[in-house]
Amino acid sequence: MEFPMVLLRLVNLVLYKLLANSCYKAARKVKGYGFHFGYLSSKTQHQPSFPSVTKCDLEGRVSQTLICDIHNVLLKSQSFFPYFMLVAFEGGSIFRALLLLLSSPILWILDYDHKLRVMTFITFCGLKIKNMENTSRAVLPKFYLENLNLHAYEVLASAGSKVVFTSVPRVMVEGFLKEYLSVGDVIGTELNTVGSYFTGFISGSGLLVKHRALKDYFGDKKPDIGIGSSSVNDHLFISLCKEGYVVNNEEGRSNPSSVMPRDKYPKPLIFHDGRLAFLPTPSATLYMFMWLPIGILLAIYRILVGVLLPYKCAMTLGVWSGIVLNVKGCILPRSEKNKGVLYICTHRTLLDPVFLSTSLARPLTAVTYSVSKVSEFIAPIRTVRLTRDRKRDGETMQRLLREGDLVVCPEGTTCREPYLLRFSSLFAEMADEIVPVAMNANVSMFYGTTASGLKCLDPFFFFMNPRPCYHIQILEKVPKEFTCAGGWSSFEVANYIQRLLGDALGFECTTLTRRDKYMMLAGNEGIVKDDKNSRK
Known about the structure:
Blueprint: H1 2-32, H2 38-44, E1 65-68, H3 70-74, H4 81-92, H5 94-102, H6 104-109, H7 112-124, H8 129-138, H9 140-146, H10 150-158, E2 161-169, H11 170-180, E3 185-189, E4 191-194, E5 197-202, H12 210-218, E6 225-229, H13 232-238, E7 243-247, H14 249-252, H15 282-308, H16 311-320, E8 324-329, E9 342-345, H17 352-360, E10 365-368, H18 373-378, E11 382-385, H19 390-403, E12 406-408, E13 419-420, E14 434-442, H20 458-463, E15 469-474, H21 490-505, E16 508-509, H22 514-521, H23 531-535
Parallel strand pairs: 1-2, 1-6, 2-3, 6-7, 8-15, 9-12, 9-14, 10-11, 10-12, 13-16
Antiparallel strand pairs: 4-5, 14-15
Helix pairs in contact: 4-5, 4-7, 4-8, 8-11, 12-13, 15-16
């Protein structure tokens, strides 16, 4: 008799909580399209009116304290689902991401609190704390910066003291807010942990209620400025401040003036990690999973074509499969015997030398500091590892130049953004026949590089994109008077060629190195160890 009663209560809960709630949400949506219901509109008639955030005076705010939320205020995106998906995919696994996607129809009918709890459980249950920290540091900032609301950020930046209150898990936003937006304190929902793992459950204090947390944090003192969304809860939140401003939906998502341009980023975005190259909204994520089987087969086909067929056939079939290859500039004649040409390339993916060799329709040798065994095996060109011993590496490169043309990427590592890392000067001492090559790669779905993931999968992820693009511009040979033979030092030559390539691509030159990138993204120096050494 007990089982039917339990089943009856469960059915009653579903009907009351889910169906009733979905009907209410549907009514609210119908109301939003112009059909008004008295019992719904009566709730919004007595809301306090706050001016738009665009009306806020930015002068004289240095000594003032500002409070706001990141969701629907600092970020233009109306849903936090994409950021949970980024954590699930990049910090968890593709299976966790699929489970989160399959839950999206259920999430649509849940209210905000239950939706947040479900997404938190699926995303964090069994997730390593270390993986979350890596994702927060190396993956999420890019997507947060690209979705910042310019007007809200300008008000935030004008204040001297900043505190963010949010109901989303604190671990998802705290690193970005403190590192990039100089926020002093972040008060958010706390998650339970067991050892080095998240349980997926919210701590005993529950989801953060912003107006209560504000009172607990400030006591009787009122913050100077509050920014919120147009929701009822946010009106209550910012009503506790001396001044209140709201970010309306039309000012956030659809207004071009609210888009944050790259040159106004609070901190340059040079390094980031992760495989996803798009903001994974439910529809975009569904498209990715539908494309995945096709993409895997297409990647295998493209790799086999490049490895097994001659250059011209490989290029033709590759273009027919969707690869976009733009080549411009002058192609030099084949080098003299015992005297090869040194090609200096910008480094966007591991495939840079391969695409250059295919474009020139001639065999090249590429030198690299670290590359996986799998990448070496499937490479259609010869690859030679360097040892980081300057004298030995110099002798190796001179020997290879006597055998034929050589490709060098002096940055030593890839960079996805429009920046060039510092060029190593070793190449400038090796040859006087130097040809700079400006290379850039564009993808729409997956990045073909990683700092903390499996490097052996880099070529597969690049070729899994529907239409991966490679732009190759072969510049004129560097005049001898601008080389070491002309009296320049190797450092001057390296900096000169870096500027040439930066100007050709419209990229900014930096003094950052490979070590800077890997220490920031992966916490190591990015050296792929040999199997023999790893056993010692």
